[in-house]
Predict the 3D structure of the following.
Amino acid sequence: MTKLNLEQLTNLFLLLSVERIGPTKLRGLLNKFKKIENILSANVRDIASVDGIGLNLAERIQRINFNREIVKNKTRFEIEKLKKLNGEITTIWDREYPSLLKKIYDPPLIIYTIGKFAEEDKNSISIVGTRNPTNYGKIQAERITQELAKQGITIVSGLARGIDSVAHRTALKTDGRTIAIIGSGLDVIYPPENRKLFYDISKHGVIVSEFSLGRKPDAQNFPRRNRIISGLSLGTVVIETGLPGGALQTASFALDQNREVFAVPGNLGTKQSEGTNKLIQKGEAKLVTNSEDILVELKLKIHPPVNKRSTKSKIELNLFEEKILDSLQTQQLHIDKIASQTKISTSDCLVHLLSLEFKGMVKQLPGKTFALL
């Protein structure tokens, strides 16, 4: 929880309740008055003398003091409710506030969180995309997320349907960290079918919101959410998005924040690929085909590849299963290709693949294609 006490939080919420007071104007006011309580007790003329404030806004700042008890009671109630949710308030002045987010042009002054930020979150990459992905998009999102998570990269996304959900779930399945930025209050889970995913992320990562408790997922909230997704990340990877699309908006924020943007090329003529291909065509995103492309561009340390078999707690494998796993190390393959590479009959391959599925090491994709889990 923030180090600010109830009175200090009340002062902050009071000032932020004044229309047109945001991070930039608040910084200007603090440069002059040093503390928020000094702003609220200052005379109109002194407040108006700050660049960008003016007489009208200064008068509204002074009048807001009449709402002190209402705001104080609301703040007290919100703190109590947050504790029941295992949630916290973090302000931009708190040590726990993410350093990456603090560096953007308009960082949120207050964030609500469930879960704890970790040191490794400084190496975060966001993965975003359409709510209606194709099978190709899902496969690419799973593959790249898994590869990044294995390298110790924290995956950031927006808990939306589609690519966002695939990214979060894959990160968790790979025992990696993931951060979800939502466009509602922490007590309003959206979409509702992601309730379990929401709780899983809160235990193994962080849920983040800029919005107070009870706030509904209104359309105007999502651009603000998207700037936090990119702001918490060293780079943003776009996997399938149409024209227009929320993922394109996140990419635009990333560019404005001087962060890297990457895009996975999509199939021509597919609606879900129009946005990603356009980003590449316009030179606004770097074309990537795997996690190494991303890590090299960001100059992040690349750890040695994880041996898939070593992560499975001494699972017993026969010679044929070993061969099949070796053939799947770099890409998903059709059953005929697996049989050809391993020199095992197709029928025997299917038997061993079924065994590997039961052992949680392989999954079957559409069209008799298989991939590592």
Remarks:
- The first strand starts at residue 87 and ends at 91.
- The two ends are 37 Å apart (CA to CA).
- The chain is about 45% helix and 15% strand.
- The first helix runs from residue 6 to 16.
